[in-house]
Design brief:
2 domains, alpha/beta, 16% strand, globular, 8 strands, single chain, 13 helices, Spore Coat Polysaccharide Biosynthesis Protein SpsA, Chain A
Length: 306
């Protein structure tokens, strides 16, 4: 399986109820392009290993870990073991549309098979486009790169599932940033980091993924838990990125009509950024006093002033 264009990677852990549908969607791609399906089983203790053993398709390859790792480390293990030039993640409770590989291949050919490149499309349920377009102000089918590229991800993470990454470029920079908590949104802190270091991003107006069965949505975790996980992800981001570069992100965000409140909350776990954030939030509350009804805003104010 050398010189493959694509690896579809499924990070899995105890997904006996959903993984068969996921695998089948990945194996039934309507394409003549050779690809592999890599399943990284994170030491599952349910019947997931038995389900995997039933598949005989030559495209499918299983790597099994002996001990559990955090969720995002499972993604990094997929990057490490993938043979394709580009890696498409599909979580073990999601399903790829049957034309996904063809759509990605057409876009990669159009862009002349770029390095330092990340591309995605629509998903049925929990779609990233509303954050990128409505909140951050970006558009479909245009390259986003340069000093303003990180703004797209200040509003939330780009979930790996259904997203295609240039594998070697991503692996060379270290993959997803480290976290300690299992569900911390490294997909947010990592995308900001990659944008700051020259990666190019593109959002296609194409359907790629069905997330109807997803179990990892923010709204299901609860706001307080999510804010704790966000702190964990940005703890490593703050350690890795220069103080001046984070200040620049904050300064650029001031011009945004919709302010990235989750980013502000995460970044102000470090005392040195509170001075910049305080006047931004004060002005916003004066303009929109109803913001005080938000748990997020109240938690942010508490962090800034207490």
């Amino acid at each position: 399986m050398q010189d493959l264009l694509f690896t579809i990677a499924i990070p899995a852990y105890n997904n006996q109820k959903t993984i068969q549908k996921t695998i089948d969607s990945c194996l039934k791609q309507q394409t003549d392009i050779p690809y592999e399906l890599l399943i990284l089983d994170d030491a599952s203790t349910d019947s997931t290993p038995e389900i995997l053993s039933q598949y005989t398709d030559s495209k499918l390859r299983v790597v099994t870990l002996e001990e559990r790792v955090p969720l995002i480390e499972n993604h990094n293990m997929c990057l490490k073991h993938a043979l394709g030039q580009y890696i498409i993640f599909c979580h073990a409770d999601d399903a790829l549309e049957d034309h996904a590989i063809e759509i990605f291949a057409q876009k990669l050919a159009q862009r002349k098979y770029p390095k330092k490149y990340i591309v995605w499309g629509h998903s049925m349920f929990r779609d990233f486009s509303s954050k990128a377009i409505d909140q951050a102000g970006f558009n479909y089918n245009e390259l986003v790169v340069g000093e303003f590229a990180p703004l797209m991800f200040l509003y939330g993470g780009l979930t790996p599932t259904g997203t295609c990454y240039s594998k070697n470029s991503f692996w060379d920079i270290g993959g997803f940033l480290k976290v300690d908590m299992n569900s911390s949104p490294s997909d947010m802190s990592t995308m900001i980091y990659l944008a700051m270091y020259g990666f190019r991003f593109e959002m296609m107006d194409e359907m790629i993924l069905n997330r109807a069965g997803s179990s990892t949505a923010i709204q299901e975790a609860g706001e307080n838990r999510y804010l704790s996980e966000l702190d964990d992800a940005f703890n490593y981001f703050i350690k890795k990125v220069k103080h001046e570069e984070i200040n620049k992100l904050i300064s650029m965000s001031i011009k945004q009509e919709t302010k990235p409140l989750y980013f502000y909350h995460a970044i102000t776990q470090s005392q040195q950024y509170k001075k910049l954030i305080k006047p931004i939030i004060s002005r916003e509350i004066i303009k929109k006093p109803w913001m005080l009804r938000s748990i997020l805003v109240r938690r942010l104010l508490k962090r800034l002033y207490i």
